[in-house]
Amino acid sequence: MIRRDRPRVVVVGAGFGGLWAVRTLAFEPIEVLLVDRRNHHTFFPLLYQVAAAEIEPEAIAFPIRGLLRRFPNVGFEMAEIRGVDPEARRLETDGPPISYDFLILAPGSVEHTFGVPGVAEHAFFLKTLDQAIDLRNHILASFERAAREPDPFLRRRMLTFTIVGGGPTGVEFAGALAELIARPLRRDFPTLDFREVRVILLEAMEGLLPGLPDRLRAYAAARLRRLGVEVRLRAMVEAVEPGCVRLKDGTRIETGTIVWTAGVRGNPLGEALGLPTGPGGRVPVASTLQVPRHPEIYVIGDLALPEGSGKLPMVAPVAIQQGALAARNILRALKGRPPQPFRYRDPGTLVTIGRNAAVAHVFGRSFTGFPAWLLWLGVHLVRLIGMRNRLVVLSGWAWDYLFYERVVRLILPSRPVRDE
Amino acid sequence: MIRRDRPRVVVVGAGFGGLWAVRTLAFEPIEVLLVDRRNHHTFFPLLYQVAAAEIEPEAIAFPIRGLLRRFPNVGFEMAEIRGVDPEARRLETDGPPISYDFLILAPGSVEHTFGVPGVAEHAFFLKTLDQAIDLRNHILASFERAAREPDPFLRRRMLTFTIVGGGPTGVEFAGALAELIARPLRRDFPTLDFREVRVILLEAMEGLLPGLPDRLRAYAAARLRRLGVEVRLRAMVEAVEPGCVRLKDGTRIETGTIVWTAGVRGNPLGEALGLPTGPGGRVPVASTLQVPRHPEIYVIGDLALPEGSGKLPMVAPVAIQQGALAARNILRALKGRPPQPFRYRDPGTLVTIGRNAAVAHVFGRSFTGFPAWLLWLGVHLVRLIGMRNRLVVLSGWAWDYLFYERVVRLILPSRPVRDE
């Protein structure tokens, strides 16, 4: 089936980086194989809205095979990568091995616990759809349990939600959770005393959203506080225990839910494949995104640490631009041309905080409030893959905006889902 | 919090029967508590479309608390019922006990294996949303595995899907699965040989859809065969083994997927509560739906076997009518009036087989094809709860109809879900 007269490029990971690499390689006289352990692409920027019961998980997932149908030279395999033999140019998988002429590794990132005790065991994460579903189910189940709990200590603990990390994910989720509680859940649970409900956002640094202009950071903190979120700065987590977060200053927070958004690190696949890794488990590569001594292997996206680019943020635009570049460099290599270095064109940052509220740092300008929020909506709707997904997400937002209703207040599946 | 000056009616189960009982009791001078172990109502008639990757599970689920908001006298508890003390009029749960003055039991039904060996262990069922999600994920994963499987025997087995039971669920699912395979999956898997894919429908009786006029039954079988379904009548399953179904006539069918729709029985809750049960685990009740010697306990829906009604089908209209009657009988009892007996008004039967094809037996008339299919669509869309759910389901149908596309071809959650 494999026409080995044409060079074969294998792309591992169907996130933003992998998809853009595949798009760039489509319709070229090469064989392309995309490999992922899931059968769908996930639109990560809206993951927190799944956890906040606003949109269905299906609405931000898209079947990979559906995306690839229009590319005659691109195939797909749902497989787990177990190892690589760079000399033989072969990937070991949970099934038959996969050989390649060029390899693009784009497995993304996973949560980073920084070795804080108890985080891996007791915290929720927001890095995969399974995790987002699990967190949504847990939040809704906490309210259901609290409604039946006569012990005030236990009830208050069930109703205390602690988010660790004041970056974009922590800020966006804190806002979405506060708004879920403020109207939809308040109407759902008329017998609960909502003064017992707390949303706490812990950030180790001096302020939220590090890296953004101070005005935007102050706006974000003020908006979250107005939504009832307790924003605690300079709060360093020492340990997480069942039902409790301990801070370095000795504070104990009794909390039934700990959401850890404090850090991400390169996917352990880099280490598993025997590639040398640097800070945050990322793989150092040349500025051309090639692995030293193996110019046929490219690493892109959250896993890559390209020379000369400084510390790039782990965001979709970086992955997209690197995916396209790695693909172009492979096409150049096939034509005997030298590879080009990566230069990041930063399109800016958009973070939403809640209804009519967001911060934008784009086109060299900073703005907040309704215009930033509208821009956020538009950009995310346009970037989302699939017309029906856009329709479903837009209707979820409309129900939220018009009726103050979160339509996916469902504990479903009703049995726990746990990501490995 | 409980104002015990007003009589308290507890309704167990938020299916069709429970919801219609609650609706009938709303705004009356009584306290009503609805109890379910899930936080959502499930619209069972479309469960098979979830398993066939056509609509999202969320689209046929609705948050119970959202349904009850407009009823000031109705509360909800998400709880598992463990036992009943009829003398003390108290339900034991997994949390605090619940006391009642009147009790309506509407827990529904579960799959019935008829003691056939291996069914409970190796078959998939279509009775809960978790099961439907699990089946969808398994079907899609079977195609992904088959695409990588070099062994033709194993590959053919992975691609053989066997449905046991030629009632409405088996017929509707067989048609939906055949259409999922015929276009969307055929386009998704260009390297697979689709002559290796089989859908087999086994029915123990002489024909499909027992109870319907012969013309409709013949039409259903012919339509399914035209969709490529192998319809085997008089096929009695002796045992289910991993990867294999054995029939009583000695036939062995090598199959990676067995979907058991051959029978349902009353929810085991009836037995767990110590109620005497009759055929199919159903609880014999008076024609007024009251339990003998405990006129304050009503049993309705799939679990009830009311005197003088014959063998009622386990369908939504029966549950809805019984829910309303049980509620009215409680209101009558409170006014000192005698209870009324149950009389089933059969609204007819609608079964869809696929695109433009259905059978209808309504208003004393039988018809097939496009008019029956349109009627099926309309009835199900109107009955579905929630405007946004209707929008999402309608868009799923539209994508299927217009683009031959199943939008939810997602293995999600990516870890297995298993119903207890």
From TrEMBL, chains A, B:
Q: Which domain of life is it from?
A: Bacteria
Query: Boundaries of each FAD/NAD(P)-binding domain copy?
Result: 8-323
Does this entry carry the keyword Nucleus?
Answer: no
Q: Which UniProt keywords apply?
A: FAD, Flavoprotein, NAD, Oxidoreductase
Which reaction is this enzyme known to catalyze?
a quinone + NADH + H(+) = a quinol + NAD(+)
Task: State the EC number(s).
Answer: 1.6.5.9
Q: Does the keyword ATP-binding apply?
A: no
Q: Which GO terms describe its molecular function?
A: NADH dehydrogenase (quinone) (non-electrogenic) activity
EC main group: oxidoreductase
- Gene3D superfamilies, A to Z: 3.50.50.100
Q: Which family does it belong to?
A: Belongs to the NADH dehydrogenase family.
User: Can you name this protein?
Assistant: NADH:ubiquinone reductase (non-electrogenic)
